[in-house]
Fold this sequence. Notes:
Layout: H1 16-35, E1 46-51, H2 57-68, E2 72-76, H3 89-99, E3 102-107, H4 113-123, E4 128-133, H5 138-151, E5 160-165, H6 176-184, E6 191-195, H7 204-217, E7 221-224, H8 227-231, E8 236-240, H9 251-259, H10 268-273, E9 279-281, H11 294-297, H12 304-323
Parallel strand pairs: 1-2, 1-3, 3-4, 5-6, 5-8, 6-7, 8-9
Helix pairs in contact: 1-12, 2-12, 3-4, 5-6, 5-12, 6-7
This protein binds phosphoric acid mono(formamide)ester.
Amino acid sequence: MDMRGxxxxxxxxxxxxxxxxxxxxxxELKSKRNSGLEHAxxxxxxxAMLFFFSSTRTRGSFEAGMAQLGGHAAFIEPKTTQISHxxxxxxxxxxxxxxxxxxxxxxxxxxxxxxxxxxxAEASIAPVLNMQCEVYHPHQCLADLMTMMEVFNGxxxxxxxxxxxxxxxxxxxxxxxxxxxxxxxxxxGMDVVVAHPTGFELMPEILGEARDLANKNxxxxxxxxxxEEGCANVDVVYAKxxxxxxxxxxxxxxxxxxxxxxxxxxxxxxxAMANDDAVYMHPLPADRDIEVAKSVLExxxxxxxxxxxxxxxxxxxxxxxxxx
Length: 324
Ligand code: CP
């Protein structure tokens, strides 16, 4: 399966078969790293990493991943470039596409980020990889899927996942994680229940696409407005916060809306609603004892560190296949 030169901006840019191919390589690379075996699939290749927004895991995993593949990753902050002085997306694609073998971008600004990535990709001969925009977080979702497959020994068909909103006080988090999940999971036979308070809706076009995928794949797809109802009898509690970005663009108004739902916390009562062997997932960073109880985040049912580790392996597989 030749995936060289392919962009990965939306989760659906790779077919189900291509996604499976990526995951097979991810497990091979994970095993090689754990065994100390060399896997320099990208010798002399260089990835540009352009971050318009802060990151712990995404930066660390892409940068370490490139080094482990025998290449190099260049960390570039827009404020240290000439972007604010006029470099356009087209120029960036044209120029960085000639310098680099891949261009990874994180740009989460509402109504701006996804178009920015697509405009760079349009002009670039090198693949563009989405390190999170306001619509999708595909590399996070790949790691999530990989983790679910590991947790359930590959038997994820028919498993039910709660993609639940949870309260946070830190900032209005993007809606890209839940949106990627509801697009990706139905293709793998998983039932999805989205739970959120009124006002915290996801993009209608993404919900429509997700419903169509669920119908096509014969999987369940529900939207509810109660956290306990959403998490009842599920196999995965994926509870995280996101801002009411479809309702208001105003940070203060959004924060006031969030503050009305501080009871939406992934705590032991919520985990008790789920199946006995259910796991708790979160992409991190999490607001401890606000978004999720520390006892859940660090408890036996939490797989958040396995999930974070899998960012490394999944992204290495994407880079090796698209930049090789
Ligand atoms: N989950 C995730 O994308 O983490 P960072 O924001 O730290 O990169």
